[in-house]
Amino acid sequence: MLSNGVSRLRGIPEYRQRFQEVFGKAGITIDTIVKAIAAYERTLLSADSPFDRFIAGNAQAITASQKRGWELFKGKAKCIECHSFSEASPFFSDFKFHNTGIVAKELNFDRLNGLARKMIDSPETVPSFAHSQGFTELGRYLITRKPEDIGAFRTQTLRDIELTSPYMHNGPEKTLIDVVRFYNRGGNANPNLDQRMRSLNLSDTEMNDLVEFMRALTSDVVLRRTQSSAPQNRSPVR
Description:
This protein is mainly alpha-helical. It folds into 2 domains: 40 residues, no CATH class; 166 residues, Cytochrome Bc1 Complex, Chain D, domain 2 (Orthogonal Bundle), CATH 1.10.760. 40% of the residues lie in helices and 2% in strands. The two termini are 17 Å apart.
C-alpha cells in the first residue's frame, strides 16, 4: 500500500534526514517520494551502445548477426511497431499500453474480469486492494477502468535489456530467447489481445539474431557501471 510505503520510509532515520534536507518541512510524503524517484530516474542515461555507433555511421560497430536482427526487428518480426525507434525518439518504445497476453499465461482471463468487476463500486481511483496479489494483473484498467484495458501494460524500452532479466512486467520470461519465443508464437490468446499479436514464423536462427540485436542496445557506460557495482547491503526495516 502507498501509505505503508510512506510509513516505512519515515521509520528510517537516514531517509528522514535526507528528505528534510531536500524538501524541508514537507518531509516524507507520497508527493516528495515521487519527486525523489523521478529525480533519480533522470540520472539513468543510456547511450553509446554498439547500435548507437552503428546508426551514427560505423558499419563495423555491430556484428553480422546483429545487423540481421535489426532487419528482422524492422521487418518480419515487426518489433518496431511497438518498440518504436527514431532519431527524435530513440527509446525503443511507443510508450503506449498493449495486451500481449502475458497475464493469460498464469491467470484465467475470466478471473481478471471478475477482479475488474470488484473494482467497479469502489469510490477510490485506485482502491487499496488493487495493489494486492492478482489485481496488478489488471494492468492499465487499474487507471482507466475501461474493460478493453484489462491486461494491458506499457511498452518498455529495450535499451540495456540484456541486463534487466527476468522479463515482462511480472518476470515470467527468464531470458531474452524466452521473450522472443513468446512473441514468435503470438503471445497467449485472450479477448483483449492486441491485434498485432500473431505468429511470426521465425526460425531458430532468426530468433537468435533478434537476441543478438537486443544485446547491441547495451550502453558501454551502463555495462561498465554494472560490472563494477557491489551488491547492496539491506538492513532490516524496523
